[in-house]
Amino acid sequence: MRRITATLLLIFALCGSALAQSTPTPLDINGALQVRNGIIVNKNNEPPQLRGISFSWSIWQGRKYDNPAVVDWLVKDFKVSLIRVPIAVQPAAGYLDDPEGQKNLITTVVDEGLKDNIYVLLDWHDHNAHLHIPQAKAFFAEMAKRYAGKPNIIYEIWNEPERVSWGVVKDYAVQVITEIRKYDPNGLIVVGSPHWDQDVDVVADAPITGFSNVAYSFHFYASDPSHQEKLMAKADKALRKGLPIIVSEWGVGEADGNGEFDRDKTKNWLNWLERNKLSWANWNITDKKETTALLQPGAPVDGGWTEDQLTPAGQYIRKVLRKLNR
Length: 326
Fold this sequence. Notes:
By secondary structure, the protein is α/β, with parallel strands linked by helices. It has a single domain (34-324), classed as TIM Barrel, CATH 3.20.20.80. It contains eleven helices and ten strands. The strands form two sheets. The protein has an eight-stranded parallel beta barrel, surrounded by six helices. It has a two-stranded antiparallel ribbon with strand order 1-2. Helix 5 (133-147) links the parallel strand 5 (119-125) and strand 6.
């Protein structure tokens, strides 16, 4: 009897191991992403609808969550299929002051995400990128050399242009895209939209031409009074015109990261994302005392968070991801 029991246990263990190994990853399911007929599609010519979380600015002081253990926990527990990794360009201590330190910090996170076979948005987190074109070109040339051929890398080349025209953003984007394409001819590239990534309707009237696999970012903060029907209508107009969009940042609170967490408004935006099959990254992994922060102050820096170590936003987003990404 003992021998039979031991044999059965061994069989169950082997079956469990084989099942775990055969579970398809987001990369297995989707493969290389491409822009076709105005939408982002996967290897099966279907919208991948990746869903995940954005890390915070890489210069926030205090506890550092930019590490491989946190990536692994987000994959295992939150069931993310996408992470966004912002490299802070400004202010002090950002890339302009410490390029090597910032690159070392964020590439560790990017590399772990790629190893886990999820998708990684590499975000040049600069509101004034048109003032730092040489630095942006040098950074993305280096990253394109490093990650060329990786189908799960996505280059986000300007986070939230502020009060500049689409012409200024477009000129910058063409220069940076040209640099990336010298080394990575196929990776998906995401271009920012004017007015904090809101004016996608303006972009849709004159999108960038001459390059393949270029999409555009759209941002919203679900509870913000100014981010409701009118903002959604701008995105709807761009989608109708065939502009490929990814929501590379959104939060449950208001535009300053704080304010109210309105669950009805958040649900309305989530329904919109699902209806349009758009990929998204929620803002953000930090324990800063803000509405959109997913972690309570002092949450462990290496993941493994319990429910009470998550903020209301963290508990909500974890539940959404575990439901939709199953």
